[in-house]
Amino acid sequence: MSILVDFWNELRYSTRSLSRSPGFTVETVATIALGIGINAGVFSVLNGVLFRDLPAPDADELVSIYQGVEGVDDYVRSGVGTFSTAEWRAYDGRAETLSGVFGHSGPTRTTLGGEAPREIASAIVTCNYFDVMQRPPMLGRALAAPDCEPGANPVVVLGYELWNESFAASSQILGQSVELNRQRFTVVGVADQGTYSASPYRAGYYAPVSSASLLQPNRPAYDNDNWLWLYLIGRRADGSGIDQVRAELGVIAAQIDRQTPGRSTTFEIERATPMTVPPMIGDMATGAAAVLMTAFGLILLLACANVANLLLARGMATHREIAIRYSLGASRARVVRGLLTESMLIAIVGGLFGAALAFWSFQVLVAVALPALSPPGIPVFAWDISPDLRVLWFAFGLTLMTGVLFGLAPALQTSRLDLNAVIKQDGQISARGARGGRLRGTLIGVQVALCMALMIAAGLLVRGLYATYTVDPGFDYRNVAWMSLALQDAGYSAEETDLMRDRLMQEVATLPGVEAVAYAMQEPLGDDRMGFPVGLPGGSEFELRRAEFNPVTADFFSVFGIPILRGRTFTDAEIASAGSEDSARPVIVTESTARNFWADADPIGQTLLLNDDAAEVVGVVADAQVSALGQVDPYYVYGPARTSEVLFVRSRLDLGATASALRAAARAVDPALTLQVRSVEDNVAYFRGVSGMVTTLGAGLGVLALVLASVGIYGVVSYAVTRRYREIGIRMALGARARNVLGLIIRQTMRPVAIGAVIGIALAVALSGVLSGVLFGVSPTDPIGLVGAALIVLAIAFASGIVAARPATGTDPSIALRCE
């Protein structure tokens, strides 16, 4: 009971003490609020992406299951860690540690027909999806086992959002048919508003796995035991742990392995989260999260160093008060506890303000950032970043840690007093005052080092953003529109697809304003990649390189203005026979590829091994930044394609007019054909948008760090000037000039600043490689970014010292000598 009374008394005393210094209190609380607020906000975002449970009852029982299969060459893997339909049935029917296992294909793009056809994201799921998730539909029924049998009538459960947007939330939709990828599906239910797919996207509808052949006729996944396409999520049975689940699934996997000689299966089992992805991608996301939290953690550390310096200055200024408490019998532990109570009070108030600010501001930030950061044509992620108990505990723990972190060292330092020196009022704190000076210098050095690292990162990001607007990508992206033609995914057969692509190209080529038309598998600066191992005949497997490969038609290079440096483009005969096993494969390589393989020799006519197949080089084109802005692929190969996935059109008309003409041409080919027309310029704008977002964030952190460091340096120098008032008076009485006094103070101030700057530069250089992914065309050790940011930090630190030390030059010696 006495402990609680003592704590209450210390709390009341700290509150009165802080209320007598409103300027100090506001400054420290605001500093801590910023540090805790941005860290709590970032953790709230990461929690919604990586740690939050799926929106389902008893979601902690849900686990994601991934498998690795080795020793079998003829498996078709639609995704890392996926399963075949037969494997899903085996695990769902035999695993006693799991009450149920469902499979889903991940987000699937399909076309919703009607008067205004449009692309939507959907989910192909096993028919126990709603049972395992324990989220029954709000209207109608869930998918049932007969719906997933071969030959079953195609049915669908609509997602709540699609039901609202496209069907006016009508309950009459049950039993009606909808057109999906040119196929008719009967609506049997409408999902509850809180039901989302097990992927980061909101599903427009849920279709049974038996309909996969209707929705994706080019992927015979459903009845092919060698097609790994389903991600599995299971619900643990009562009392079953993850280790037990792993052991039982291992036994079932061993039985499956024995049926296929040479096959070996391994498992990864994790708690299911909205970021339900294979472990490889999950590790990357976790690594990115660690980098992000480290960057924001530096801001919190900087804020703690700042407040620690302010507390140290405040404690040294109130040494007489502390000495009186000692003389009245207070123990050092009691004094330290009182000072820690004051720092904890600052941390708690700052944490409350910071958490409230973070939860509001980051909701707005994510709502704005997610659409901007989503690649063109990709649905916006549906993540819930609202705070939950995990976020609240994180904010609470961070607050307590912060209070101890910035309060302990000043409390211990302040409690070390020489009572004789204080009683004599000689303005000194015995020899231990030197330790306080070293501590203050160390804290300044820490602040400058952290500030320097963040400012250099911000400087590099600004340089990278500038480069995205000034870099020449090596191809002309203006006035080029493109359309994705995944026609087989939209329900067209292979024969229909080839015929329609040919007809569409003929229709488009005759449109007014069209200058050139071409097909390719990948659009420049898009999110799709196709890589193959390449090498020279006679080389070892260790000499193989990974090359980006893009099948294109002959006019692709004229559409994008990529010059042919040597040789030629593909002939009509080569285009017509593309894909034929009887014809030799011609390829066109980039300038870098030719240089890396044949140095100064003529590459025309040379043989290149592409995925173990021999190909003849018929042309060399100029390098172009088609994979990422600011980056030239060292190995890039173009092959011939009669038609391919993406149609490109260069037109003299603006995008709106071109898009209208292209849609009209598509309707002339097939009235049900739905095409999304986009500009290649949008892909460039996406890179600029990502760079702009990251740069804004990095620059904001850098400026915040600079402000915190400036305030800290100003506070420490001001305190030092105040404590040395008598010394300064004596120096000036003995003939020292104002500039001598100012120079003395600045030299002593800049010493820890210089040491911190050197450490900060080294830290920034060591960590700059982390930024390479968003420094489009700029080296992580770019001298302009490094030197420019470093000079700004040193200039601001110098200016802060000048402003704080300036009052010392006007000291009246007669007044200073009478000062305590």
> Mind describing the biggest β-sheet?
10 strands, mixed
Terminal residue distance: 42 Å
Oligomer: single chain
* Spans where pLDDT lies below 50 across 5 or more residues: 278-282, 426-435
Q: Bin the helical content.
A: 40-55%
Q: Approximately what portion of the residues adopt beta-strand conformation?
A: 15-25%
Write structural notes for this entry.
This protein is an alpha+beta fold. It is built from 23 helices and 23 strands. Strands 1, 3, 4, 5, 6, 7, 8, 9, 11 and 12 form a ten-stranded mixed β-sheet that branches. Strands 15-16-21-18-20-19 form a six-stranded mixed β-barrel. Strands 14-22-13-23 form a four-stranded antiparallel β-sheet. The radius of gyration is 34 Å and the shape is globular. The two termini are 42 Å apart. The model is unreliable at 278-282 and 426-435 (pLDDT under 50).
